[in-house]
Amino acid sequence: MGDRAAKDALFAEFAAVGKALGSPKRLELLDLLAQGPRSVEDLANAADLGLSTCSAHLQRLLAAGLVATRRDGTRIWYSLAGEDVAALFANLRSVAQRHRPHTEQARRAYLGPDDTKQVDVAELLRWAEAGDVVVLDVRPAPEYAAGHLPGAVSIPLDELEDRLIELPEDREVIAYCRGAYCALAHDAVRLLTAHGRQARRATDGVLEWRVAGLPVQAQAA
Amino acid sequence: MGDRAAKDALFAEFAAVGKALGSPKRLELLDLLAQGPRSVEDLANAADLGLSTCSAHLQRLLAAGLVATRRDGTRIWYSLAGEDVAALFANLRSVAQRHRPHTEQARRAYLGPDDTKQVDVAELLRWAEAGDVVVLDVRPAPEYAAGHLPGAVSIPLDELEDRLIELPEDREVIAYCRGAYCALAHDAVRLLTAHGRQARRATDGVLEWRVAGLPVQAQAA
DNA sequence: ACAATATTCCAAAGAACATTGGAGGAGCTG
DNA sequence: CAGCTCCTCCAATGTTCTTTGGAATATTGT
Asked: Is Transcription regulation set as a keyword in this record (chains A, B) (predicted)?
């Protein structure tokens, strides 16, 4: 008990998880997987990675125990190993945000200026229940299918301009997306207000709601 | 907005924190710092590191924003950058525990067999308030001084055998230490029961209590 | 100003990691 | 079983990380 070698072995176990979190691309993969299971090729495209590079990163996440795989015919679906992994990822981001000044800068550069009105989930749910607003999921359709806020309407951002008619003009639209660092809802609200609609975005997104244990409705496959 | 370069920069920020968590030795330093501020040389000894190696790791943690420094004369005191860092660390450990089978193995190898009775904090506090038990802090004295459970008595593990007289024989002793992966309380309870005392250990330790927001009493300097 | 103490910086060597393209494997379909 | 798709494995490259001992720096006390 209490000897060096054993202590080192124990901390090496913890570090294996840390190492897996130590690459931007792997974190991006986790971010995507937090929205639902995906295949390797799909992830490679979404994360702008070569296929073998993506596979290698996924192997690394798998070895660390952060993701799980399921084979479906010729395809392999990767998913997060559990809600606690999503929580760890969210935790990591918030520590970066709080203790690394550059993070805020990078966030702004990616999401654009803070020119959009926002609401937190609690209020969003209250308004939605009262029927005052339309809750809009602007993520790609498969992510909506994998799980979304109950009652939310799905119009992926890249189809939004063409499908504006589907949104009632007399109600405010509340857009949400993957999470606090996802650009989709920001862009959606800009697009909507540019078209004269009343719109705001949810402060958080599916990642944070999942971690908070909010009900997320999966669509029947 | 939404372009690759900006997204990569944002995730690089997150990954900087992840990278800092990707070394066993750095995690060990965080573990120590979670008990209170310490100097470089002190940390090097405690973590079994060369002085320059230790300094390099601390620089890395500092660059990642996970620790802070304070100069006191010729000495530099490192400390955690915030409670959220402790929470992140605890989170990392619990993910490793839950998703990496080897972790449990390594834990047992380090802490020894599960031959000691345990109590959770809630019950510990109830018993302590009723005066049924002695709450014993077996960490090194400086860590006790930096913060401990209100009402706890300090006898560092390596002095315990010589100071048994200080503990009342008619009351059960509840020993606690740094956290769920710290060997001190395990060893203390084994030592106490070997001397015929009634003893058990707290399931968690100061790290977890801090994260949970429990009152931790700092000794006036 | 000088010596003493505590820490950081530097350079070098070895280890681990990321990325690539292409070969190999597993599973489906005809 | 041949051809297809999707993914993993492999080998080679360049890069980053760790560890070391010794030199440089900052602060204090004489």
From this structure: yes
